[in-house]
Each structure stands twice: as C-alpha cells, then as structure tokens.
Design brief:
9 helices, mainly beta
C-alpha cells in the first residue's frame, strides 16, 4: 500500500502482520472528541481561518488572559469570537500568563491577586462567560512552589504554601464570579503524592476544582498515562470525591505534533478514557499547535483531526498489538448504528497489519460491507496535504462468526489510516486509482558538503519530527548538494515533493538537475526554523529507469529531509463521500448500492444540509460536480448556485480548505467530485503599482514581489490608504485574494516560543462598511502568502481600499478577484 506522501520507515520485523482488533459490541460510551484541543491554538480572530477551525469540532482550548504579557497574542476573549463562531466548546484561561517572564516572575500572592481580580471581572462580563474555565496556576510543581522536591519536609512546607494560595485565589475568583469553573492543580507531570494531599485539602476546605488538570509531556506518557489515570481515579474514590472532569491541558512533544502516526497514539488513549486534552504549545501560536499551515491550509495532522471529528455514535473497544507502549500501533474506533457506519483510526507503526473487526451485526450492516481505507501522511508542520488518498475500496463478506478482516500492507510509521465500514448493498465499489509513488531519504542519498543530523527521537522527544528521524543540513557551501538515485517505472511527468527547512530569513533556492542536465531553480518559502518542516511541490519529466536527481545549493542554505516521487495522472481530483460529510437536519443514509465511492448515498430533504471539506492546492477555479439524483444547491463563500445532475460547476476555491454546503428539496447525494489545479482564467489581477496611495503608503522595490514592488508603510494613520480600482465584468459575489507579506514580531524576553504577530487591514469595497481582516506573519518580509475575502462587486468600476488607522497593515504585493461561480 502506498500513499501520496509515504513516510519512510523500516518494515516491521515481525514474521506476520500485526493484529489490531475492534469489538463493535463493546461500547466505551459516546464519542467525546475530547483530545483535539490546543494550547495557544488560536492567535487572533481569523488565525486559523474559520474554514480550518470549524471542521475540527474543538472541545477545549487554552489561551492567555486578555492583555497577558507572556505572549503578544492569543488573548482568550479576543480569540473567543472565532472559536465560538466555529462551534468551539470551552476556553481555559491560563491566568498566570498575565506575567511576562518564563518561568513566571514570583512577586508573591499579593502581587497576583489584583491581576486575578482584573481577569475574572473581564471574563465574567463576557456574554459567554459560562464557557470559560479559570486555571489559576500553571505547573506549580516546578514554578513558584517547587512541589516536586524529594525531601519530604521541604515538600510539605512548599505544599502548604501552595494550598494556602490555592484557597485564597479560589475564593477570590468565586467572590467575583460565583458560578466560575476552576481547574487545577495543573502540574507539569503526574504526582500521586501531591494529588492525594490536594484532594484531601480541597475537599476539606470546599475548594475542589471543577476540572482536574495535569500535563503529559514526555514520550513516556504514551506508556504511563493509563496508570496515571487509573491511579487518579482511585485517589478520588479513596477521598470520597465524585469523578471530576479531566483535562490533560498540555500533551505531546515536538516530535509528535503534525505527525498523524504519533497523534493517533495520544488521541486513542485520551478518547478511550473520556478525558479532554490540549496539545502543547512549543512553537508559534495560531496553527492549532502544528496542524494548520499558514492560516487555512491542512497538513497531515489536520486531516487526522478532521477524521477524528468525523467519528459519531459510540467509541468501541480496540485491542492493539501492545497496550501502553511507546511508538506502537494504536487505534480508536466508533460505531454509529443510526448511520450504519463503523470507523477505525489507526497508526504509529510500519509494516503490515490485519484489522479484525468483531461483532459486525447483520441487522446493522447486512451480509457484506464496503471497507474504504485512506491514508493521512506526514507532510511536515508547514507542508500542505491534499485530501487523503483512498488506497483501497473493497466489498467484503461478513464471516459466519461476525468478523470482517481488513488487511493493510506496507504501512508508514508516520501516517494514520482510516477504515470506514458501511453496508455493502448491491453493485461494486469503484477501485481507487493509486498512482505509483516512492520515497527517498536525504540521509541515504549521496551528500556533498552537508551533514546528517538526528531529530525527534524517543530520547530527544522535544526535537522536531523528521522523516526517518534524520535530515541533511549544513548545505551552506558553493559545492553543497544531495544526489538522489531514483528509479521510475515508465516515461512521464512526476510530482516531486521536497520536505525541507529554510531559516535563512528570506525565500531560498536550490538548483534541481536530472542526470547532470541543465538545472532549474526551486524556490523555498521561509520556515520557522531549519527543522520546522515544510513541503515544496514541483514536477519533473523522467524516462523509465534509473536517474540521479540533484538538489544543489542556490542562493541560501536549505535543509533537506526527504523527496517523494509520484506519477502525475492529470489534474488533481478527489471524490468526497456524502455519507461522511458533516450534516445538519435529519438526512437519511441509503446503502442499497455500493457503486461509485462505495459508501452509499446521503438523502437530503428540505431542512437538511451536508457540508464537505474541499481542498484546493491554490487559489483559482475548479470543477465541482455533485453526484446526485436531482438538482442540489451548492453554497460557497456566501454564494449559492443550483447544480443540475451531470452538469459540473466552475467554482472559485481558496488555497487550502473550503467548506462547501449542499442542500436539496429531495435528492440522494453520493459524492462531491472536485478536480482541477486552480485555473486563473477569467480572474482579475492588479499589481500593487496600480493602486493609488496616500498618507505615507508607498511602493517599495523588492526582487521577491511579483512585479518587482509591493505596497509598504500602509496604515498606522487614518490617512494611509491604498486604493485599487477594480473593473468587474458583471455584478455578483467574488473572492478577493490578497497577496501579502510581513514579519511583525515581539520579543517578550524569552526564546521559549516564537512570538510572531499578526497584522490587520480594514478593507472596504465601494460604499460598503470596512471589514477587518487578519493576516498572519509570513516568517519573513520577503515571503508572500494569500488570504481570500468574499466581497460583492457591482458591474463596472469598484474601489477596493486598504487601510488601518491604528497599526501597520501588511505589505501588499497584489490582489486577484474571481467570481465565486465562474463561467
């Protein structure tokens, strides 16, 4: 089995396939989706975008109090607007992040209490105050109180000081907000000694938290968490305390974040135990802790969490080959009898696996099932990942003993896999087209004037993830190069994906040559650091047989991790199964036929809606075809259009994820089929030089801007404006795509996190009221990203104006506009 971006790793040494067993008859309770949260996952309203945030169905996040000095953004009240707008659950307020230093400066409880008062008054005044949870102390076992000391006498003295302050702060919060929910004690690790004492004290003094929190931040947590959880529940029982809600409000290491095969191990153990959990904040805010590229683009981690958000019904028991073991095959599964669907998410191990599903009820599924297998691969922290490719789609007879076995071969350690079981019905599912693909590690290639580095291992869990745990860096001399020997099966065009890092401070280049031929330039956007992996996609034409692909130093240093070669079979395409879409209303599920995508049809009637998450590799036009038995309405970017059966639409999609809604009076919808590579035919494009500038805004020369200059010094005054005159061929709804760049940062005095800032611009179209749009930091002043903004234009001349009266707006390279429904 091979996927779009296979993550290389050694094959399993076992003689036969591993076995992961799913028992559909053993419910663990309703799917909770507790483990999808993040610390500083949001940085601003719009970062990440609504389309990236809403599909994940986030149950909890942790953010700093409004105006907190620990970081320059991520204020709880500020981000709550987009969080709640997109269906978010609750927000933990990390109250000590009001302080600037790390570890927090210890100025005594008397300094802290007025800060507590301010935070609680602000949160209590919010209309959604009941959806906030106060966390008054963060890692008190290490910070301020040193509760982890071995000396018992010293521990007791430190403990008593902490307990006194806990009671004082708890009562202070409740005095202002009587209904406040308070969480704690929030240790950096699990401490039986402390928790036993804490529960006894808190019960006696009537200051029990409503949410129990601690952190799981070691690679050993994958082994130890279950014992921690079991021990904690036993402490509650011994103390006569009813089970508290648990939030592991920081989990996972750098090597885990963004990596589907690692994340599935963490999520499975938290969901199994029905606890909430938030990924740790090791780097920059606003990307859901390594799962959202830029503001709106999915990576492999995002797709894993999208799958997790798609589980419905009850979770059921999963028995992995090894329980509570680090870096092993793990999984979680769900059964929704009303939808007649079972789903299994698994990963974390290379090699071959048999997934055995027990107790497949004939009354629910019938005598046959369709088993659909897809892969979410690792694409780096900042590497885009297209819609997960379906690897196999087969109709399987349910065995006499009620079991279904799904064989998985050639799994990749860093990938996660999803199996969906639906009733087989009549007909035969279409076999997916899986192109040939191969991966080549940079450390295994011929290296000239470079160095192999080891990253992200169990023993160095806070190192960054790298394919095969190694990469090639120090490619910083004129003769530095990496020669990859590849072998392709036939003549043709191949997609070449390069996993890289670029910390040079500007876009960097390398020279790509085939068999020593004339080189072409490959451009690499900036990344957070050398090891914060991104992905560059290019194409190469190759004859069948062996070749040497050379990546040689260009104008700056670039780190190389791995390349993937995949046969290009035409414009990208994906088929999104309607029975797996997000729904509202009460649609029904029809599995009478498994033809086509194999997962049946979703029957929509008035009041029903299905929402699909559609990936686009770039801004532009795509062909969108609902496979339906009757006309359906398709809604996108605030525009709605009727799609007749068999008549594809030409729709404008923005780079990354697009939420496409489908409604109907009465239609059975099998899938939403999307193809294309982002045509710009019919779009309008205006360079920065065409704008009228005022109030200090001016054109600045730049070799990296599309036409050699960008609009800079925009904003920070009511007079500073950039006005484009846009000539629309007809009235209607358009997407305004802004190509922008900026590298605004604030040094908070500690290097623990990368404190990037976002900028905003107020954009007005014609006489409409200005709209404030957020633009995330692009890692350097010379990198240009895009943000798409739906706008309404009238036929003929329209004024599109950018400004910001109170702060600097981003630099603007150019703008494009595409009508949502193209001709």
């Amino acid at each position: 089995m091979s996927g779009t971006l296979p993550a290389a790793g050694p094959a399993s040494a076992a003689d036969g396939p591993q076995r992961l067993t799913v028992d559909l008859a053993e419910s663990e309770g309703p799917v909770m989706l507790g483990a999808n949260g993040a610390l500083y996952g949001l940085s601003d309203d719009g970062v990440p975008s609504d389309a990236a945030l809403e599909p994940l169905k986030i149950t909890s996040i942790s953010q700093k109090p409004e105006g907190g000095a620990q970081h320059p953004n991520g204020d709880a009240l500020a981000v709550s607007k987009s969080f709640f707008r997109n269906g978010g659950g609750e927000i933990n307020v990390m109250m000590q992040d009001i302080y600037a230093k790390w570890p927090y400066e210890d100025l005594g409880i008397d300094d802290y209490l007025p800060k507590i008062d301010k935070i609680v008054k602000e949160v209590a005044a919010d209309p959604n105050s009941d959806r906030f949870v106060y966390i008054p102390f963060n890692e008190p076992d290490q910070i301020w109180y040193k509760l982890g000391v071995e000396d018992q006498a010293q521990y007791e003295a430190n403990r008593d000081r902490f307990f006194k302050d806990w009671k004082t702060v708890y009562q202070r919060i409740r005095a202002i907000d009587p209904d406040a929910r308070i969480a704690g004690p929030n240790e950096a690790g699990y401490h039986t000694r402390l928790l036993k004492d804490f529960l006894a004290f808190a019960k006696r003094e009537n200051v029990l938290p409503q949410v129990m929190t601690w952190h799981e931040l070691g690679s050993g947590s994958l082994r130890d968490f279950q014992a921690h959880y079991d021990n904690y529940r036993s402490l509650e029982r011994e103390a006569g305390i009813a089970p508290l809600k648990i939030n592991i409000d920081e989990y996972a290491n750098r090597r885990d974040l963004s990596v589907p095969g690692q994340l599935v191990q963490w999520v499975s153990m938290f969901e199994r135990n029905k606890v909430y959990a938030n990924q740790a904040y090791w780097d920059a805010a606003g990307n859901m802790d390594g799962n959202v590229v830029r503001s709106n683009i999915p990576n492999g981690g995002w797709w894993f969490f999208r799958w997790y958000a798609g589980l419905t019904g009850d979770t059921v028991k999963v028995t992995p080959p090894q329980a509570n073991a680090i870096d092993t095959l793990q999984g979680l599964a769900s059964l929704d009898e009303s939808r007649r669907q079972a789903q299994v998410l698994l990963g974390g191990s290379a090699g071959d696996t048999d997934v055995v599903v027990d107790n497949v009820s004939r009354s629910v599924f019938g005598r046959t099932v369709t088993a659909t297998v897809a892969e979410a691969a690792w694409s780096g922290y900042e590497g885009q990942h297209a819609t997960p490719r379906v690897l196999t789609r087969t109709k399987v007879k349910v065995a006499d003993d009620g079991t279904v076995t799904v064989p998985l071969r050639g799994l990749h350690k860093m990938s996660a896999y999803r199996i969906v079981l639906t009733p087989g019905g009549s007909g035969t599912p279409s076999a997916p087209s899986v192109p040939w693909s191969a991966s080549y590690e940079a450390e295994d290639a011929a290296i000239t004037d470079g160095k192999v580095y080891t990253q992200g291992t169990v023993s160095n869990a806070n190192g960054y993830a790298a394919s095969g745990t190694k990469d090639v860096g120090s490619l910083n001399t004129a003769t530095s190069k990496v020669d990859f020997t590849v072998n392709v099966p036939k003549d043709g065009t191949y997609d070449l994906a390069i996993l890289y890092g670029n910390q040079s401070g500007a876009p960097a280049t390398q020279k790509l040559s085939v068999d020593g031929g004339d080189p072409v330039t490959v451009g690499y956007p900036s990344t957070e650091n050398w090891t914060y992996r991104a992905k560059k996609d290019v194409t190469v034409a190759l004859k069948a047989g062996q070749h040497v692909l050379t990546l040689a130093k260009g104008d700056a240093e670039v780190t190389l991790d791995r390349i993937d070669l995949t046969t290009r079979t035409g414009a990208p395409s994906a088929s999104y199964e309607a029975t797996l879409a997000d729904i509202s209303g009460t649609p029904s599920y029809d599995y009478s036929s498994s033809a086509g995508t194999g997962t049946g049809a979703l029957v929509l009637r008035s009041g029903d809606k299905a929402v699909f998450d559609v990936y686009a590799p770039r801004d532009g036009y795509y062909t969108v075809a609902p496979r339906a038995t009757a006309p359906v309405k398709v809604a996108l970017h605030g525009e709605s259009v009727t799609a007749e059966p068999g008549r594809p639409l030409r729709l404008y999609l923005v780079a990354g994820n697009n939420r496409v809604a489908v409604t109907a009076k009465h239609a059975a919808v099998r899938s939403l089929d999307v193809s294309g590579d982002g045509s710009t035919t019919g779009t309008l494009s205006y360079e920065g030089a065409s704008a009228t500038l005022a109030g200090g805004a001016k054109l600045v020369d730049s070799a990296h801007a599309s036409a050699g200059s960008y609009i800079g010094w925009l904003g920070n005054s009511t007079d500073s404006k950039a006005e484009f005159t846009v000539d629309a061929p007809r009235s209607g709804r358009y997407v305004l795509v802004v190509h922008y760049g900026h590298n605004d940062r604030r040094d908070n005095g500690h290097a623990y996190n990368t404190d990037i800032m976002s900028r905003t611009a107020d954009i007005s179209v014609g006489t409409a009221a200005p709209r404030t749009v957020t633009f995330k930091n692009t890692w350097s002043w010379d990198d240009y990203w895009t943000v798409g903004v739906p706008v309404d234009l009238k036929k003929g001349s329209n004024k599109v104006t950018f400004g910001n009266a109170t702060a600097w707006a981003p630099n603007i390279d150019r703008i494009e506009l595409g009508r949502v429904v193209g001709q």
